[in-house]
Amino acid sequence: MPRLSSTVPVDLLVANRSREKPSPRFHWPIPTKAVGDTHNLSTARLVAEAAQAAEPGRATVLGCGTCTEIPIRLLNQKFTRVDLVDIDARSLDIVKSQCLRWADPQDSYVFHRADLTGLIAQIRLRAQELASEELEPVHYLRALGESLESASPQFWTPSDGAKYSLIVCATVLTQLQASVREMVESVFLNRFPGGSALFSDAVWRQRIWSFARNLEDAFIGHLDSLTAPGGIVFLSDTVHVSWLTAVDDRTLTSEGSWIATRTSSIADYLRPWHEVLKADQWDWFREAKEGPYWGRLYGVQVILYRPSREWAP
Ligand SMILES: C[S@@+](CC[C@H](N)C(=O)[O-])C[C@H]1O[C@@H](n2cnc3c(N)ncnc32)[C@H](O)[C@@H]1O
């Protein structure tokens, strides 16, 4: 199962939510295991469609994780090179071992351990500098928020500058801000263990919300620069998130659903010159105990689009 942001407290995502009100309380039957699998199958099916529609050339999976949702063998067959990029060395090792076990005659996988945003090292340094200053927790946190807002992402690009016929970003867009934010939070918590200001300070919360949304927007812009003429982008994310509680052994309930992106439509990140080839959405019940919660219900949205840079202003 792919790992999604380890953000446990509901409060923190609320800080990141759009200004929409949460939807009313709902009830659902507890899904069987088979229902849970449909998310991975649906994603794999749409990635396969995108691969089929794409021209031959290179493909990349950005934030590939353990490729639970990605039919990488199929990508390996179709493309001359498949760049798999993730910050997490353990996930990349799992995928590498799997590829070795398959021992397919064509081996076009190239693994890259990298921070897609280029922000983590940059901001860690600034956060550590600030930690040595005599600041009250709230002032320190606000200064961290300012450095997040003012930092410029240095998004990952392949070292040879090649462009991709297919770019897959499956449930990674909203994880980018989480990886940077979690690093900043851990530096803060080292300096001020317990750090309640993380949850209570409205200025910090507003800054991380803006940081997250601007980073996502800039990342979508960056994808244009990675795409070969006519290339296709597969973009999916968990736009809605609800924390689920089991009422009894058959029923789940939630307080409402929160938006993890700028608006309730992932398509709102696209530019006027992006040609949408296909859009889809589904519910994904993910059982994973978090405190009192049974797990989460994600509202997943997917878009396949062509940046069509010839139309860009
Ligand atoms: C939800 S998972 C994606 C799962 C993947 N689609 C799969 O099929 O297993 C998000 C991935 O994004 C990666 N990630 C998050 N922030 C990142 C960053 N700044 N740079 C590179 N990878 C990042 C995480 O390590 C994680 O593997």
Features:
313 residues, Rossmann fold, 10-stranded mixed β-sheet, 39% helix, globular, binds S-adenosylmethionine
Task: Walk me through the structure.
Helix content is 39%, strand content 27%. By secondary structure, it is an alpha/beta fold. It has one domain (10-311): Vaccinia Virus protein VP39 (Rossmann fold, 3-Layer(aba) Sandwich). Strands 1, 2, 3, 4, 5, 6, 7, 8, 9 and 10 form a 10-stranded mixed sheet that branches. It is globular and about 60 Å long. Mean pLDDT is 88; it is low at 1-20. The structure holds S-adenosylmethionine (SAM). S-adenosylmethionine (SAM) is lined by residues 2-4, 63-70, 86-88, 91, 115-117, 170-172, 175-176, 179.
CATH topology: Rossmann fold
Ends distance: 40 Å
> Total helix count?
9
- Alpha-carbon Rg, integer: 20 Å
Overall 3D shape: globular
Give the fraction of residues assigned to helices: 25-40%
Itemize the secondary structure elements and their pairings.
Blueprint: H1 10-16, E1 26-29, H2 33-53, E2 58-62, H3 72-78, E3 81-86, H4 89-102, E4 109-113, H5 120-131, H6 137-150, E5 164-170, H7 173-191, H8 197-200, H9 202-226, E6 227-246, E7 251-254, E8 258-259, E9 275-290, E10 293-306
Parallel strand pairs: 2-3, 2-5, 3-4, 5-6
Antiparallel strand pairs: 1-7, 6-7, 6-8, 6-10, 9-10
Helix pairs in contact: 5-6, 5-7, 6-9, 7-9
The chain binds S-adenosylmethionine (SAM).
S-adenosylmethionine is lined by residues 2-4, 63-70, 86-88, 91, 115-117, 170-172, 175-176, 179.
